[in-house]
Amino acid sequence: MSLKPIVLHGHAGGPNPWKVAIALEELNVPYEHKLWEFPDLKTEKFEKMNPNGRTPAIEDPNTGITLWESGAIIEYLVETYDKEGKFTYTSSPEKYQLKQWLHFQMSGQGPYFGQLAWFKNYHPEKIQSAVDRYTKEIKRVCSVIDAHLKSTGKEYLVGDKYTYADLSFVPWNILVGWLAGEEFEKEIQKDLPTYWAWWQRVLSRDAVQKVKKDREAALAKAH
Ligand SMILES: N[C@@H](CCC(=O)N[C@@H](CS)C(=O)NCC(=O)O)C(=O)O
After folding, report:
1. Is 197 exposed, middle or buried (0-12, 13-18, 19+ CB in 10 A)?
2. Does residue 163 belong to any structural domain of this protein?
3. Domain contains 216
4. What domain of life is recorded for the organism (predicted)?
5. Which end of the chain is less congested by CB atoms within 10 angstroms, N or C?
């Protein structure tokens, strides 16, 4: 059965919609990426779809669902379009470990990396203690992954394969150099080599490279 394209509502700069784009590419599900401007997210037109006024949101004409929150969207896509379990596991304990890492990404990586972006680039006053706190938190989050992979000796976060848990970390990871500086990124590479090897492995995937390029093109167009 041929699928109708899913509409992905996103934003060129914001990392979260690109996480969904990577999942759609990996699953080979057709989609149209509709890019919004930030002020338009707080309008009735957008808030009818997502009362939180943020991206991503998806509309799937194949099932009739409208959904927001990138973690929930990833789970929906995998449950609906990954019946063969290419990027997921359906039995315990891996099924729950996947959720554990996705929750960690959603609550531990996204908001903390996002706060560094805010305090470094957008907050009207310079608050060094906030910048320091969130910079430290980036390294701490990366060190959790480093320690986990060291202890399991595996190449990916869950089980023996690349899954939706790995891909969920990509869009914020891509921004680390911009967020915290190249020197900081080099420090992570040096101090957390197991993490770094995993990150390079994930980054080299075709779907990730494609979406990275799409994002750069969208950003260039937006400026
Ligand atoms: N927890 C949400 C975060 C959504 C979010 O903060 N999206 C950003 C883009 S990455 C946004 O739309 N920001 C616009 C705004 O805050 O007005 C998710 O993962 O979907």
Report:
1. middle
2. yes
3. no
4. Eukaryota
5. N
